[in-house]
Write a structure and sequence with these properties.
Length: 260
């Protein structure tokens, strides 16, 4: 076992961020987490936060209880008779799956942000003037990472809702771009809740295709991300570049080709 981790009090977006930081800094195998060690370090962080009058959110407290529960299950001896009847399930597996999924989304968000920074530094866009001249209240600053977090939250809740059996589903990103166009035309230009759009879908595949379609339309400045108040719903707003993107057909044809 490695030496105890020395760390100063840092800010984390959530308990999974904290756990990933503890694991990666010590180069621990995420598939074989030393749960007692990680639990002790997690509780140490919570204690230090309390000493500095930093009140942890309910998510951090719930994760602490989850870690303690997993630790207790691993300490309990297993009945040899049950071992012959049922395969032993690793109590850490669900936590590992959540950590891996969170890491994938976090990496995707960072990659998209870096890609956007590079493109803005290198390429000029003839529609940027229209994008900056949008009328109305610009609202709060919203990033692609906020949209990723909304998408991740919906996927978490989907795990607890009834599953739909869809035969021969063949939804694609271009299909979802056309779906978004129809939604905005039907809504009359008003902003639409990203969470509501995700929750209208009946399958995980449809949600992923919808998420990628949103990114493509944000990239060509057909839609923008808005937030009316801090920690509020992320909305999608139709921009002036919306009609331009669909009018010539070149932007959409390039997207269609990219996903074929």
């Amino acid at each position: 076992m490695s030496a105890p981790l020395n760390f100063h009090l840092e800010h984390y977006d959530g308990p999974l961020d904290l756990l990933l930081d503890l694991i990666r800094k010590q180069e621990i195998d995420i598939y074989n987490i030393p749960i007692a060690q990680i639990t002790a370090q997690y509780l140490e962080y919570m204690q230090r936060a309390a000493e500095m009058d930093v009140e942890p959110s309910a998510e951090f407290i719930y994760m602490a209880a989850t870690l303690i529960h997993i630790k207790s299950k691993m300490l309990l001896p297993r009945d040899p008779a049950l071992a012959d009847l049922l395969a032993e399930e690793d109590p850490r597996q669900e936590l590992v799956d959540r950590l891996l999924e969170h890491e994938r989304f976090k990496s995707a968000a960072e990659m998209l942000h870096q890609k956007r920074v590079i493109e803005e530094a290198v390429w000029s866009n003839p529609q940027i003037a229209l994008f900056r001249a949008e009328d109305g209240d610009p609202g709060l600053a919203v990033t692609l990472f906020d949209l990723v977090k909304t998408f991740q939250g919906v996927l978490e809740r989907v795990k607890n809702r009834p599953a739909y059996e869809i035969d021969n589903e063949d939804v694609s990103v271009p299909d979802m771009i056309r779906y978004l166009r129809h939604v905005f035309e039907a809504e009359g230009g008003e902003s639409v809740s990203a969470r509501d759009l995700f929750e209208r879908q009946k399958s995980r595949r449809a949600m992923i295709c919808l998420f990628l379609a949103m990114l493509e339309l944000v990239k060509v400045q057909a839609i923008g991300l808005v937030q009316k108040e801090g920690f509020g719903e992320i909305g999608l707003k139709r921009l002036k570049g919306f009609e331009t993107a669909f009018a010539s057909g070149e932007e959409m044809a390039a997207i269609d080709e990219g996903y074929n």
